[in-house]
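User: Sequence recovery, please. Input:
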């Protein structure tokens, strides 16, 4: 995974997330300038106000997701993130009073069992901090999926505009959080540290790894403006 590749070498996981968001915002802006999007991008303070809960959950969820991946192996990360399914089941029941079928209950039970086996019975050393971040991230992601349905009404049902506002506002909010979280030194090291000197083994420098990883993963934050099928 590109994220894990970068998080293994950087001490600024939130700044890495911020960089991904900024790249996504830049891609949105370029696509809008070239008239490639079906909806013109806007910036309406009233819409921003209506998306406060959506953006807040997005920032917290993505931040915890990055921290999860930083502290656990990529394979276990998928197990921890699998808890999104049972959390979504509970959230949907509370929010919409929807009763799931027996098959859904069975599927959630298997996922939860897999998580418990991975944590307690696998025998592999696992960071409890990473587990904590993974569980919280899964819960927030499940809640986020419910809030998305309500937030679409704020942008007249446009998933493209919702993604635009979410990425832009998340980037604005996350930047000061990076420094409040103590990542200033890591950011300075990224740009000006001795690690940026050319490596004798010909490998990528920390900065190059950071940029390539950001570009690869940021593309997933931008929905395709073209219909499929």
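Assistant: Recovered sequence (229 residues):
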């Amino acid at each position: 995974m590109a994220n894990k590749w970068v998080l293994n070498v950087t001490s600024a996981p939130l700044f890495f997330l911020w960089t991904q968001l900024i790249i996504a915002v830049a891609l949105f802006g370029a696509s809008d300038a070239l008239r490639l999007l079906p909806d013109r991008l806007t910036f309406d303070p009233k819409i921003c106000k209506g998306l406060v809960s959506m953006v807040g959950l997005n920032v917290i969820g993505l931040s915890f997701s990055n921290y999860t991946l930083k502290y656990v192996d990529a394979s276990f990360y998928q197990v921890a993130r699998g808890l999104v399914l049972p959390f979504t089941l509970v959230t949907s029941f509370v929010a919409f009073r929807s009763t799931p079928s027996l098959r859904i209950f069975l599927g959630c039970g298997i996922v939860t069992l897999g998580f418990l086996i991975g944590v307690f019975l696998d025998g592999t050393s696992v960071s409890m901090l990473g587990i904590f971040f993974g569980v919280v991230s899964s819960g927030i992601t499940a809640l986020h999926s419910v809030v998305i349905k309500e937030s679409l009404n704020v942008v007249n049902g446009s998933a493209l505009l919702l993604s635009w506002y979410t990425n832009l506002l998340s980037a604005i909010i996350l930047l000061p959080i990076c420094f409040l979280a103590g990542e200033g030194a890591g950011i300075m090291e990224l740009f000006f540290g001795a690690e940026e000197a050319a490596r004798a083994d010909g490998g990528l420098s920390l900065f190059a790894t950071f940029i390539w990883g950001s570009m690869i993963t940021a593309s997933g934050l931008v929905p395709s403006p073209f219909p499929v099928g």
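The radius of gyration is 19 Å.
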